[in-house]
Amino acid sequence: MTNLVSANIATLKPYQPGKPIEELERELGITGSIKLASNENPLGPSPKAVEAVRQAVTDLHIYPDGAIFKLRERLAQKHRCDMSEILVGNGSNEVINMLIRTFCQPGDNVVVSDYAFVAYRICATAFGVDVNSVPMHDGYVHDLEAMAAACTDDTKMVFVANPNNPTGTYVGEKPLTAFLKSVPEHVIVVLDEAYVEYALAKDYVTGMDLRDVRERLVISRTFSKCYGLAGLRCGYAVGPAELFDYVNRIREPFNSSSLAQVGAIAALDDEKFVLRSVSSNEEGRKKMRLALEDLAPRGVTWIPSQTNFLLVGTPVEGTRVYDAMLKQGVIVRPMAGYGLTRHVRITIGSESEVERCMDAFVKALDEVHA
Ligand SMILES: *Cc1c(COP(=O)(O)O)cnc(C)c1O
After folding, report:
1. What is the pLDDT of residue 8?
2. Is residue 167 in contact with ligand 1, taking CB distance under 6 Å?
3. Chain region(s) in the chain for CATH 3.40.640.10
4. What is the pLDDT of residue 1?
5. How far is the CA of 93 from the centre of ligand 1 (A)?
6. Can you list the alpha helix ranges (DSSP code H) found in the chain?
7. CA of 222 to the centre of ligand 1 (A)
8. What is the mean pLDDT for each group of 10 consecutive residues in the chain (370 residues)?
9. How close is the Cα of 295 to the center of ligand 1, in Å?
10. Residue with CA closest to ligand 1 atom 1
11. CATH 3.90.1150.10 segments of the chain
């Protein structure tokens, strides 16, 4: 008898999302919890997007536009490219998935960093594609030279999240440009810019400005983070039309819902909301950093971040701190699944959420005697 599933699926660990508030409250019989586990926007969704979605619900009996015309047109305008260079997905996770399914065959490989966003690994493994994971520099920064050197004839794609999740770190213009030039021509470089709006470092550069440097470059973005639309499921990529022509052959007919399409267009027109989100994040990031600095004598560390979260080093196992915080109704993200056993990842919340979180963090340290 043949196996029901392939070995790569039999051994695959499913993606572990942040714990939903409802689940925690059901389990502990508590109310008023906060979730700082999935890098969601503490300001909520863009109000313009909410209004557009509200208006569109009356047409839910109609199939969405399978060509995603208006959203792609709007995105092409934003990124000064042709509509054929825009690929929209049900979240950028689907974009990653479609790219792997289109361009990789079993036996091929993709190159990622240790501590890269786990979705690349999961998607590749699910399709029987090998994952070549490259150690990071000290400080949890992508080692781009090593990643380029790791590419073989069988490498189809290299994934670089910039800034990266779960580390919050980034690579600057110089190393990134050199990398794009040095990766072998046949390889598709995927730059995942889920947190681009939060990256304010002077030497940060978006891949949108480096499209001339390399032919096979795909840049992915999402509405899930700074636009506050994680529940809507909308992400997209900008890249060569020649590549997306192939992707469109496997893309599901209605992979972007009608609500996602109108919500995303409205969100793009809500620049004020993005600016507010970024400045609120800056404030929160500062506040959290100061609170964490005070805890340095207790063995707490943190990694400089260009995102809306911080990877925090804990003096004991991260899961113990996570559990002790859960009991106080504060959900953060344990990192053991990434092999970061003495860390938790904390999303930067609103001012009051940061206060409550840091309070719960200190009490958790007390409880585990750290
Ligand atoms: C959150 C995140 C995404 C976004 O995923 P969506 O499917 O668009 O919600 C993509 N890449 C990284 C690195 C992320 O952290």
Report:
1. 87
2. no
3. 47-269
4. 62
5. 6
6. 7-10, 21-28, 47-56, 69-78, 92-103, 118-126, 144-149, 173-182, 241-250, 258-268, 271-294, 318-326, 351-367
7. 6
8. 85 89 94 95 97 97 98 98 98 98 96 96 94 96 98 98 98 98 98 98 98 98 98 98 98 97 97 97 96 95 97 97 96 94 97 96 91
9. 30
10. 194
11. 17-44+272-369
Point out the ligand 1 atom lying closest to the alpha carbon of residue 235.
Answer: 8
Q: Which atom of ligand 1 is nearest to the CA of 233?
A: 9
Burial-class residue 79 by CB neighbours within 10 Å (0-12, 13-18, 19+).
middle
Q: How confident is the model at residue 14, as a pLDDT?
A: 85
Q: Right CATH number for 47-269 from 3.30.70.20, 3.40.640.10, 1.10.3720.10, 3.40.50.2300?
A: 3.40.640.10
Q: What atom of ligand 1 comes closest to residue 222's alpha carbon?
A: 8
Mutate to test the pocket of ligand 1, among 92, 171, 191, 227 (most ligand atoms within 8 A of CB): 92
| Centroid of ligand 1 to alpha carbon of 342 (angstroms) | 23
What DSSP string describes 59-117? GTTSPP-TT-HHHHHHHHHHTTS-GGGEEEESSHHHHHHHHHHHH--TT-EEEEETTS-
Cross-strand partners of 134: 113
Distance 220 CA to ligand 1 centre (A): 9
Which one of 3.30.1310.20, 3.90.1150.10, 3.40.50.10810, 2.40.50.100 gives the CATH number of domain 17-44+272-369?
3.90.1150.10
pLDDT at 182: 98
Question: pTM here?
Answer: 0.96
Atom of ligand 1 at shortest range from CA of 39: 1
Distance CA 344, CA 19 (A): 13
